[in-house]
Design goal:
By secondary structure, the protein is α/β, with parallel strands linked by helices. α7 (267-276) links the parallel β16 and β17. It is globular and about 120 Å long.
Length: 602
């Protein structure tokens, strides 16, 4: 042992002492026993490593789904402290417990040196005070108190608090609440923000932002929001700017930075991020027009993953190596998506999981936008106050909003798709709860609340009706009919004509007849017409979103085809010269096809 004053001394059981020299050498001092009598006759000092792992922190890490223990050590070597490393108990008990400290930190060769080294690490952690580190946002209960976690400052019933350690990694580090309180913050919300663009854009985004902190509360009621806010417009329409502006309710964002989610992220990374941001808004930014088929597929996959994660509020179930179940990271965030294309390749189901606002050129007013961007911290200040109101009135809101949701959903049923009715109801709840809070602090009157809620409802319902048209156009049956109509108009289908006696009038030398027609029906060979439609969309680099069986079932349910019994096809006798052929065909009603009047008559 070198003749230096010890940097650290740690006592273990059985009179064993670990000693760290000033230079960092780790030694163990053990009792030396007489071989014959067993009596202690002195001590024996053995150097076991050229460095010493010094405990820095014992952390309990909570990511909202699972709680794990992390042990942070800082190695001392060559007379100074080096970079801290986070280890688990598995790392400490491994064959190379020093592995994470780098090649310069080595354990000396000798009997039991690695075991003694690991024991030194464990003894330090044995009685150390553990600190809880939260890696997620949103509501939780700590010591019987409801708290909304966020970086810098969290919120409880008394307002902002910095009692809790919340650290979000990577692209999420811009989330957090500020303790500033500007006297103009309410003016920014009530007067300036609505002026940046038409109400058809501002109101849905505002409602979505104030709905988001209610996610946990509504989840407990069984009516959690399950849709994304979709901002669509050509490049240069400021769609990303608008989305980032509304994210400032929960942090400090501006357009020049990388968004919390992007179309370059993997599906697993995106879904994991959505599980960390409980009752918080995030952004999947900038779906661009397809440059090639592979880029288009990647974009569609990323968008589908987010739409379905939030639309279903379900995470992926996975197994550990020992076949036990891993914790499920359930998506609990709300999300804006910005895109230059409207719902390309996501299908009917994906379209129904979104609420869309289209942004036209010159929709956003630059001067008014700049004013709000200058005061974007006001939005952050406002949201922390709103969340405090939600915590203080949790039970009352829980009772009121559950009944209100079902009432509003039933009121919106006439819009069409059931998911759209829910989206309209949720957005109205966001506006309504915001108004309740403004009334509670005497910023709004009852008359102002009623006027704003009525105006917002009309806007939400109108936008939902437009969204319903997009859903209809994305249904497999509509796509099927549209494809046939275009194929007929371009003379791409070889269809023979029948007279009233089912005789083929227009004989053809071509053998690729796809079906027949008379005044009322097209009679298609089922496999051939389905393949033709799939090929039609394949040429456009789109995928037809339905199998043949389910497509024919939907055509039958919508009355587009005529069937017999339980089959989607029906027998038809076709006469060719002196030959009669009775076969099963798909009887498609001509009234369902818009072929620009190009009907053949026998």
């Amino acid at each position: 042992m070198d003749n230096e004053q010890p940097f650290l001394t740690v006592n273990a059981e059985h009179s064993i002492i670990y000693e760290v020299s000033a230079s960092g050498i780790l030694s163990v001092i053990q009792p030396l026993n007489d071989r014959k009598t067993g009596e202690v006759i002195g001590t024996e000092t053995t150097q076991i490593a050229n460095h010493s792992p010094i405990l820095k922190n014992l952390l309990t890490v909570d990511d909202g789904t699972e709680i794990t223990e992390k042990i942070v050590f800082q190695p001392r070597r060559a007379g100074r402290m080096w970079k801290s490393e986070t280890l688990t108990l598995k790392d400490i008990l491994s064959a190379n417990p020093n592995e994470k400290f780098g090649a310069g930190c080595r354990i000396y060769i000798g009997k039991s040196t690695k075991q003694l080294y690991s024991q030194f690490m464990q003894i330090q952690a044995e009685n150390a005070e553990s600190k809880t580190l939260f890696k997620h946002t949103g509501f939780t209960e700590i010591d019987g108190k409801r708290v909304f976690l966020n970086q810098n400052f969290s919120v409880d019933e008394n307002g902002l608090t910095n009692k809790y350690d919340v650290v979000l990694d990577g692209k999420l580090d811009r989330y957090g609440f500020t303790d500033e309180k500007s006297p103009d913050r309410y003016k920014t919300l009530i007067e300036d923000l609505p002026k940046i663009a038409p109400k058809e854009l501002v109101y849905p985004c505002l409602a979505y932002s104030f709905l988001t902190p209610l996610n946990r509360l509504l989840r407990e009621c069984g009516c959690e929001p399950r849709f994304v806010m979709y901002l669509c417009g050509k490049t240069g329409t400021n769609k990303s700017t608008i989305a980032n502006l509304f994210l400032n309710f929960f942090g400090n964002f501006y357009e020049g930075e990388t968004s919390p989610l992007s179309f370059n992220d993997t599906e697993n990374a995106s879904c994991y991020t959505l599980s960390l941001l409980d009752s918080t808004c995030t952004l999947l930014d900038d779906r661009i027009p397809d440059l090639n088929r592979q880029i288009q597929l990647n974009m569609e996959n990323r968008e589908q993953a987010v739409l379905r994660a939030i639309g279903d509020r379900a995470g992926k179930q996975r197994l550990n190596a020992d076949s036990t179940l891993k914790p499920v990271h359930r998506p609990v965030a709300n999300c804006f998506i910005t895109s230059e294309e409207i719902f390309k390749g996501v299908g009917e189901s994906g379209t129904a999981r979104a609420f869309c606002c289209e942004i036209q050129p010159d929709t956003v007013k630059s001067r008014e936008l700049f004013r709000v961007q200058t005061n974007k911290s006001h939005l952050n200040q406002i949201m922390s106050e709103y969340i405090q109101f939600v915590i203080q009135n949790w039970d009352k809101l829980k009772s009121e909003l559950k009944n209100k949701f079902y009432e509003l959903r039933d009121k919106a049923r006439s819009v069409g798709h059931g998911r759209l009715a829910e989206s309209v109801a949720h957005l109205e709840i966001g506006i309504l709860t915001m108004c309740k809070w403004l009334q509670s602090i005497e910023i709004f009157t009852e008359a102002q609340t009623q006027k704003l809620c009525e105006s917002a409802w009309n806007i939400f319902f109108s936008l939902a009706q437009q969204q319903q048209q997009r859903i209809v156009s994305a249904t497999p049956t509509t796509m099927f009919i549209n494809a046939i109509s275009q194929l007929i108009n371009s003379n791409s289908l070889n269809i023979a004509t029948l007279n009233k006696d089912n005789e083929v009038l227009l004989a053809t030398s071509r053998t690729d007849i796809i079906g027949y027609e008379d005044n009322n029906y097209f009679y298609f060979y089922p496999d051939k017409i389905y393949s033709a439609v799939c090929q039609f969309y394949s040429v456009q680099e789109n995928c037809f979103p339905s199998g043949k069986t389910s497509l024919f079932r939907d055509l039958k349910q919508e009355g587009i085809i005529e069937c017999e019994d339980k089959s989607a096809t029906k027998k038809k006798t076709i006469k060719r010269g002196d030959k009669d052929c009775r076969q099963r065909l798909l009887w498609l009603r001509k009234s369902a096809i818009d072929n620009d009047g190009k009907e053949k008559s026998p």
